[in-house]
Amino acid sequence: MFRLALRQTEGLIGSILHLLGLDLAVPDYSTLSRRAETLEVPKPCSRSRGPVHLLVDSTGLRLCGPGEWLIEKHGTRRRRSWRKLHIGVNAETGQILASELTTHDVDDDSQVEPLLDQIAAPLASFIGDGAYDQAGIDGTVGKRHPDADVIVPPRSTAVLSETAEIAPTQRDRHLQSVHEHGRMGWQKQSEYTRRALVEAAISRLKRVIGNGLRSRTDRRRATEIAIAVHALNRLGAGSVRPPADPCNTAPCRSTPALNNPAVHGASMPHSAREPVHGRGVGPGLRQTLSQDS
After folding, report:
1. Is 249 among the domain residues?
2. Mean pLDDT, to the nearest integer, of 179-183?
3. In 3-state terms, what secondary structure has residue 28?
4. Is 246 a domain residue?
5. DSSP bridge pairs for 53
6. Residue 254 has pLDDT above 80, yes or no
7. How many domains does the chain have?
8. Model-level pTM?
């Protein structure tokens, strides 16, 4: 999360232990690097109460190589290599449930099975972009989750299967819906628009963790990704709200201060809610907050 190299990480851990007054040995950077080969990171466990709406996508991560100083010094430039990260995100919680790191030339549809193998919870739906519009996707998902809806946009050149009139597949029904309602109408009807949440998860990963891999071997890179996913899920655990209450009677546990009616101004007179110039907070609200604290 702090985008530190292993040497810097060693110094950071030592400083934290010193501030805590703990006399503990700090593993050196070479030990941290070697442990990444065999480190077992806990697998994510779905926080949803029911079946999971799984969103899948992939993104590229560059491999950290010679820096700009080395390029400027020797005058040589080498083409940067990169890896492809495939992830599966829970649409309700934003939690990353599955991840797979491959080379850049691996197709997205070939990683559906490894992603599904990492998820123990049942699926309500499987949502992916047009790269997953392949013949075997329905069978791969249906073999593990027969009741799951496979929501993948058909290609512009897609045609109905031979059994569309007798026993239409999910792809056939999607294709018929596209012809009837248009592609935008199909997206709203099938809730394909949820797929934007997996793009938000990828953006969060690159903004918080970074868009590069520092490790030098594939096994260590896989461990690096597993640690990054675990950290992101821990960071987002406190920001996930419980399912919406249709009667709006249950308090929100994640934001107790906002449930105080005095904070919202429901029990204060209008004069107490008027903002102070340059501050934006009324005196009654400031007094309430000081009492709560």
Report:
1. no
2. 92
3. coil
4. no
5. 125
6. no
7. 3
8. 0.73
Task: State residue 262's pLDDT score.
Answer: 42
Distance of CA 22 to the CA centre of its chain: 35
Give the whole-angstrom CA distance, residue 42 versus residue 230: 8
For 5-48, give the DSSP string. -HHHHHHHHHHHHHHTT---PPPPHHHHHHHTTT--PPPP----
Residues 169 and 222 both lie in one domain: yes
Range of the domain at 270: 256-292
At 84, the pLDDT band (50, 70, 90 cuts) reads: very high
* Together in a domain, 10 and 84: no
Same domain flag for 125 and 197? yes
Query: Radius of gyration of the chain from Cα atoms?
Result: 25
The residues, any chain, with a CB within 8 Å of residue 192's CB and separated by 6 or more, are: 127, 151, 153, 186
The arithmetic mean of pLDDT across residues 30-52, rounded, is 86
**Bridge partner residues of 266 (DSSP):** none
Nearby residues of 138 by Cβ (< 8 Å), 6 or more positions away: 150, 169, 170, 171
Higher pLDDT, 135 or 78: 135
Shared domain check, 226 and 191: yes
